[in-house]
Structures are given as C-alpha cells and as structure tokens.
Amino acid sequence: MEVHHHPKVEKKTFREYFFEFIMIFLAVTVGFFAETFRENITEHKRAKEFAESMVKDLREDTIQLKSYRAYFNNAANNIDTLQQLLAKAEPRDVPTGKLYWYGLFGGARRYFVPNDETFQQMKSSGSLRYFGKKIAATVARYDRFCRLIQSNEEMQQNLYVEVRKLRSQIFDFKYNDRANTIAQNYYKKADYGLIDSFLKTDPPLLSNDKTIFNEYVELVRSRFIRTANIAYSDSLLHQAAVLLNELKTEYYLKD
To answer: How far is CA 40 from CA 18, 33, 132, in A?
Structure first.
C-alpha cells in the first residue's frame, strides 16, 4: 500500500503575522490618503475654475449696477426738480418744456438681471462646498441681495403702471417720446445741448390741472426711486466688492 507523505508546513510566528498586518494597514492607509489628496487637488482645481467664472460674472454685474444706480440717481434728481418747480408755481405758470422733461422721469424703468450662471450651476450640482464655509456664505448673501433688488422691482410694478397711466393724461405722447429720445441719447453721449434746447421749447400739455399734477407727483414719490433702487444697488455693489476680494485672495486671481 502506497503511503502519501504530507509536506511539512511551517507555522508563522506572531511577529510575521503582525508585520503582514502592518504592511496591509499601511498600504490601505496610504491609498486612502493618496485618494483624498487627489480628490482635494481636483476639487481645488474645480473651485478655482468656478471662482474665475464667478469673478467674471461679478465684474459684469458691477458694470450693470453702476449704470443702474446712475440711471435712477439721474431720474431721482429730475423728479426732485419737478417737485421744486410745482412747489413754487402752478402747472400753467411753468414752461411746458420743463414739465415734459422733468415729468418724463416719473416713469423711469430699468431692471437688474444678475449674471448668475456660475452660481446656479454650483448650487444645482452641490459644488458650493468647494468654496469653503466663508466664501459660500458670502456667495449666498450676494444672491440674497440680488433677489431683494429684483423683489423691489416687482413690488414697484403696480405703481409704475399707475404712474404711466396718469402721465398719459398730462403729456402728449408725441412730445413725451421726443423727450425720451433725447434722454436715451444723453445716456450714450452725455450731450446736454439737446436737453437745453428741449427745455426752451413750449410743447402743449393735455392737461395743466393742478389736482392731476399733484396726484402724479405723489405717485412718483411713492415709488421710492431714491431710497429703494439706489439703496439696493449700493448694498449690492458693496457685496459684489466683498465677494470679489474674497475670491481673488483665496484663489490668487489677478485683476
């Protein structure tokens, strides 16, 4: 009968088992840290790309906001002049060219549309976490101010419609449109000569009734042109500057 001899298996010592455990543990740990490091590099790279895109959006917003603020500041100044004219004299005693020009700005209207493509993309994809808590909080605060200024514009909508309706009872569309064309050209060229010429004209009014003028001025004042539009744009410009500074500092972005 044939006898099979089993090979002799040497048993590992505790030190050998412990050494193998240490090697496996180190391999897993190093792999974990390497993967984490790789993810951090990737996230930082993506964060910088988002930061560069958001900086571009903020610069465009800043240009738009400065124009928005200048527009409403100009409108408010002209409305102030209209109120001063009517506080000192009856509508029939004020040159109609001045009434047309300064009355035009009661219907001032402009919208602020934020360039928020980068923010919306980061928000929907959960990528805002790439920025860290401080910058993410500043981004959220800036977005909140954007929504506030847009909400203010929506709240003014009904008053704006009423102002336009009442204005149509006072001013003839033909001359009102002429004044508006001059105003649009002034924003482009800042040529006061055309304005001065129009102020010296005497276009006919549809009405010089003091009651209607008084109602028109009160409606215009109710729109809070100076306190609302300008205040919101000032706040938003400040928030844009804060966010721009944080993004450029954190990601070493140049102007």
So the answer is: 32, 10, 12
Task: Measure the N-to-C terminal CA separation of the chain; round to a whole number of Å.
Answer: 93
- Of 236, 214, 221, 204, give the one whose Cα is nearest residue 67: 236
Q: Which two tokens stand for residue 22?
A: 């240490």
Predicted TM-score (pTM) of the model is 0.81
Q: What are the b/e assignments for 167-179, b being 16+ CB within 10 Å?
A: beebbeeebbebb
Q: Give domain status of residue 220, yes or no.
A: yes
Q: Write out the residue range of the structural domain in which residue 223 sits.
A: 14-251
Q: Give percent of the chain with pLDDT exceeding 90.
A: 65
Which pair of tokens denotes residue 158? 């009904």
Of 4 and 92, the one with more pLDDT: 92
How many domains does the chain contain in total?
Answer: 1
Beta bridge partners, 171, equal 205
User: Cβ(82)–Cβ(103) under 8 Å?
Assistant: yes
